[in-house]
Specification:
The chain is mostly beta strands. The protein has a single domain, classed as Acid Proteases (Cathepsin D, subunit A, domain 1, Beta Barrel), CATH 2.40.70.10. 4% of the residues lie in helices and 39% in strands. The chain is built from one helix and eleven strands. Strands 6-8-7-4-5-9 form a six-stranded mixed sheet. It is globular.
Length: 137
C-alpha cells in the first residue's frame, strides 16, 4: 500500500466576512507576509491581480497580453498576462510552479484553480460541513 500524507486546513474569512475554502501562500519562503487565496475547483486557471505580481517583481512590460479567461471576460475590463510563477505553501518545503493569469484589476481576488495546483495532490477534499480543506499527497 502506498503511504500518503495529509493536512487539514480550516476555511478562512475573506473580504465578504464568510468562511471560504482558502489557503495562505508565500512567493518566497522567507517572506513575512503571505497572500490568502481562494481555492476554486471550478476554475481551470489560477488568477491573481497584477498588483501582487508587481510587488513580487514580475515585469509585465515584457509580457504580451492574452484574452481574458471566460470567468473574467465580460465582467470587468482588464488586461491579462499568463506568466510562470512559483510559490510555497506552509506544509511543503518545495515550491509549486504553475502558470498564473495575472489580471490588471484589483477587483479580482487571488484564486488557485485546478491546472498546476490541484494536480500536485492525490486528493483535495472540500469538507463543507466542517469548513475545512484536506490535502492528500
Amino acid at each position: 500500500m502506498l503511504s500518503s500524507k495529509e493536512i487539514s486546513i480550516p476555511y478562512n474569512k475573506l473580504l465578504d466576512n464568510n468562511l471560504r475554502p482558502s489557503i495562505s501562500i508565500k512567493f518566497d519562503p522567507s517572506d513575512t507576509q503571505s497572500v490568502l487565496c481562494l481555492l476554486d475547483s471550478g476554475a481551470d486557471f489560477s488568477t491573481f491581480p497584477v498588483s501582487i505580481g508587481k510587488k513580487i517583481g514580475v515585469d509585465f512590460r515584457d509580457e504580451d497580453p492574452i484574452n481574458p479567461p471566460s470567468q473574467i471576460s465580460g465582467k470587468i475590463k482588464c488586461k491579462c498576462y499568463k506568466v510562470a510563477t512559483s510559490f510555497y505553501v506552509s506544509w511543503q518545503t518545495e515550491s509549486i510552479s504553475l502558470y498564473v493569469i495575472w489580471v490588471n484589476s484589483d477587483k479580482v481576488y487571488p484564486v488557485l484553480g485546478r491546472r498546476g495546483f490541484f494536480d500536485k495532490f492525490k486528493e483535495v477534499v472540500f469538507c463543507e460541513e466542517e469548513k475545512k480543506l484536506i490535502f492528500r499527497w
